Amino acid sequence: MKKKKPFGWRGLLFLFLLAAVVFVGSWQKGVVFAAGNDNPTGKEQYCSINDELIERHIKEKEKVEKGRKTFEDLLRQRGGRKPAYGSKEYWQILAEYADPEGKLRKQDPEKWELLDAYAYDYYVKNFLPPVKPERTGTSSGNGEKGISAASVTIQGGLYNRSGAVNYAYRYVGSASDVPFYKNYNPYYHAFSADCTNFVSQCLRAGGVPLVDAWWRPWFASGDWYYYRRGTDSFDSNNDDGWSWSWVKVQSLYYHITGRLGFQAYSSGQLQLGDIVQFDFNNDGILDHSAIVTSIDSRDGMRRVSYHTANRKDVRMDSEWLKDSRKIYLHITY
Ligand SMILES: [Ca+2]
Ligand SMILES: [Ca+2]
Questions:
Q1: Domain range 149-331, its CATH number among 3.90.1640.30, 3.90.1720.10, 2.60.40.1120, 1.10.8.420
Q2: Which of 8, 11, 47, 177 has a C-alpha 20 to 30 A away from that of 130?
Q3: What residue segments make up the domains of the chain, in order of their start?
Q4: Whose CA is closest to 116, among 3, 230, 251?
Q5: Cα–Cα distance between 170 and 312 in angstroms, integer?
Q6: Which of the ligands is closest to the CA of residue 324?
């Protein structure tokens, strides 16, 4: 065992803690999410500082902003008349750069990643309708009523639920993994925001077939595919291809509700292998995907597993997930 000077070690720890306190304090002030309509108090909600999913969400937003700047630079470099934000031409050029199988990803994967983040953000805001909570009906509030273990019925669809759940358990990894994709399936690209890629892999492991119509572009929600090229682990060569429905939260929502199942009004309707998506800040834009991997026998609460950060069997009322608007997707395939 190496022996270190106790003062040096403690001094460093103290400085680190001090820096962390200062950082967290200033960060918390900046992170205010508007209260949703279903918040009867109408007070602003301060999200807990240890919420790793919110942190991830903020990082994605930063990436989007960097991507916007990068795209503006590219537009300037192209010269000529600059297309207006929101115009058809603007999207065409943006999509050309953000194409997972386009030139830019091969030339400069890091730059491409920023443009991919910006392009998706742009697409969601300009093309995809917001996702509203499911109809109220008999359920009220946040849709958590009506949970019971007894309400679980097994349907005889083609979807192999235990296959999907077993896959999820095998590749979910843990939050402490270094690198984060240590326990991911090396067949697939490892994304810094991997939640929807992971859920898609689980659906695929449950036997859901790929769909790729030649007339649809990769960003259309009707398609759902992943193509591996080469034998490189985690797609280190950056040459695999995929549709946005495979990797992007809201695109998968529209794919599932259009082809594989429906939006349920309560988590009590969810079976193993069903999908839960989250809208952290209640703006109608979905931010996170997870798969139901177990049901708590005490109260029927569904537990989900997900990537980024990697978590297994998390109750939906856990500190990470309880404050978020949830979208329940029941697979009927
Ligand atoms: Ca590859
Ligand atoms: Ca959102």
A1: 3.90.1720.10
A2: 47
A3: 24-126, 149-331
A4: 251
A5: 10
A6: 2
Residue 303 and residue 313 in contact, taking contact as beta carbons nearer than 8 Å: yes
Q: What is the pTM of this model?
A: 0.81
Q: CA 70, 72, 73 angle in degrees (round to 5)?
A: 65
CA of 252 to the centre of ligand 2 (A): 15
- Do the Cβ atoms of 196 and 248 come closer than 8 Å? yes
Q: How many residues does the chain have?
A: 333
Determine the distance separating the centroid of ligand 2 and the alpha carbon of 61, expressed in angstroms: 11
List, for residues 228-256, the tens digit of each pLDDT value: 999 999 999 999 999 999 999 999 999 99
Mean per-residue pLDDT over the chain, rounded: 84
pLDDT tens digit sequence for 51-73: 677 788 888 899 999 999 999 99
Closest among 250, 242, 240, 204 to 223, alpha carbons compared: 242
The upper half-sphere exposure of residue 138, i.e. CA atoms within 13 Å in the direction of its Cβ, equals 7
The residue with greater pLDDT, 264 or 6, is 264
